[in-house]
Amino acid sequence: MTKTISIILIVCSLVLVFSYFLRSNTSTPTTTPVSVVTPTKTFHWTMVTAWPPNFPIFQNGVEQLAKDIETMSRGQLQIKVYAGGELVPPLQTFEAVSQGSAQMGHSGAFYWAGKVPAAQFMSSVPFGMTTKGVNAWLYEGGGLELWRELYEPFNIIPFPAGNTGVQMGGWFNKRIDSVEDLTGLKMRLPGLGGQVLAKAGGTPMLLAGGEIYTALERGTIDATEWAGPFHDKRFGLDRAAKYYYYPGWHEPGSPLELIINRTAWAELPEHLQKIIEVAARSVNQWMFCEFEASNINALRELQQEQHVEILAFPPEVLKELRHLTVETLEQEAAKNATFKKVYQAYKQFQTEYAAWNAISDDAYSQALQQ
Ligand code: CA
C-alpha cells in the first residue's frame, strides 16, 4: 500500500515538473515543435477528361474531385482540370497521361479497347456484374491489381472513380418482340455489346454522343443506347425514338477511371498519394449515388410527363444475347492471352458473387415483390 502511494507521489511530481517545462516552452515564441512537418513543395498538375465541359455528374464530379484534393492537401496539390477538347481531344486522354503531358485523366476504360482489349473488363461487360460486384472485385477481389498490370506498360496507374450503375437497354424506333427483330437492326452500341449485336444479325454503329440524336431522328440508325434515364433525357432521345427498353444488358455496372502518370505519382510524397487514393474512392461512390438519384427523377418525368413507352426486352431475346455474349468473350479470349487471363478472373469472381447475391440482393428483391 505504502509502495503504491510512493509511486503515485513520484508520478505526480514528474507531471508537475513536466507541466512547468511545458509552460516555460509555450511562453517562448521562437520554439518550433519538432513533430510538425512543413510542406516544402507545391505540385501543379494538369488533368484532362473524356467528357464535354459541364457534363453533369462526369465532368462536375471530376472538378469536385480536384477541389477536394486541393482542400485536403491544404493547397499542396493543385489540379487544373480540362474537359475533353479543351487541351486534348476527348479520346486522347489516355495518351496524354501516358506521355505525361497531363499528370491525371478521367475517362472510361472501354475507350481504349483497341489498345488494351482486356481493359473492357474494367468498363462495359455485357451480362457482367453490377456496381456492387464490380467494386467488390476491383477493391477486394484482385481486379484492381489486374487493371494496374494492364496499364503498367503505358506508365499509367488506374483507380476506379465513378460507376454508372445499370444502364438502360436503349431507345428503339421498332419493337423488339423476338430475336429475329434484331436482324438488320442498325444500333449505336459500342464495345463488346456491339460485337454481340453483330452476332445476332444487327449492325452496331459507332457514333459520338453529340451525333446520336440526329442519327436517330433522321433514321440513319434504328436504335441507340446511351446511359440511363437522366443522361438520355438530357440528350432529348425521348423525342427521337418511340420505345425505351430495359435492362441495359450490355452495361450493367460500368466503372469510370481516374488515371495517373506513374512518373508524376512517384514524385508525390506519401500523404498526397494517400489523399488521391481516398479522394478517388470518394468520387467512385459519389458518382454512382448521383446517377442513381438523378435517374429516379428522370424516369418519373419520362413516364408521367413525356409518356414514353418503357418496355422490357423479352426473356428469349435476353437469353440469346447472353448466349452470344459468352461466345464473343470466349472468341476474344482465344485470340489474346491477356484478355483470357482477365476474363477468367472476372468470370470466377462473378460466379462466386452470384452464389452470394442469389441469397442476398436477389432474394431480398424477390421478397419485396411478394
Ligand atoms: Ca452506355
Can you offer a commentary on this structure?
With 370 residues, this protein is of the alpha/beta class. It has helices spanning 2-26, 58-72, 93-99, 131-140, 143-151, 191-199, 209-217, 229-234, 262-267, 270-304, 315-335, 337-358, 361-368, and strands at 43-49, 77-82, 104-107, 156-163, 170-172, 186-188, 203-205, 223-224, 243-246, 255-261, 309-312. The protein has a six-stranded mixed beta sheet with strand order 7-6-8-5-9-11. A five-stranded mixed beta sheet has the order 2-1-3-10-4. Helix 6 (191-199) links the parallel strand 6 and strand 7. The chain is globular. The structure holds calcium ion (CA). Calcium ion binds at residues 167, 225-227, 251. The site of calcium ion (CA) has 5 residues, from loops.
Outline of the structure:
With 370 residues, the protein is an alpha/beta fold. The protein is built from 13 helices and 11 strands. It has helices spanning 2-26, 58-72, 93-99, 131-140, 143-151, 191-199, 209-217, 229-234, 262-267, 270-304, 315-335, 337-358, 361-368, and strands at 43-49, 77-82, 104-107, 156-163, 170-172, 186-188, 203-205, 223-224, 243-246, 255-261, 309-312.
Write down the CATH topology of the largest domain. D-Maltodextrin-Binding Protein, domain 2
- Number of helices in the DSSP assignment: 13
- Measured by DSSP, the beta-strand proportion falls in 5-15%
Beta-strand segment tally? 11
State Rg.
Answer: 26 Å
**Which distinct ligands sit in these coordinates?**
calcium ion
Strand arrangement in the largest pleated sheet: 7-6-8-5-9-11
Low-confidence stretches: 11-32
Mean pLDDT: 91
Structural class: alpha/beta
Name given to the CATH architecture of the largest domain:
3-Layer(aba) Sandwich
The H-level CATH homologous superfamily of the largest domain, spelled out, is Bacterial extracellular solute-binding protein, family 7
Order of helices and strands: HEHEHEHHEEEHEHEHEEHHEHHH
CATH class of the largest domain: Alpha Beta
Relative helix content:
40-55%
| Overall domain count | 2
* Silhouette: globular
State the end-to-end distance: 70 Å
Major sheet attributes: 6 strands, mixed
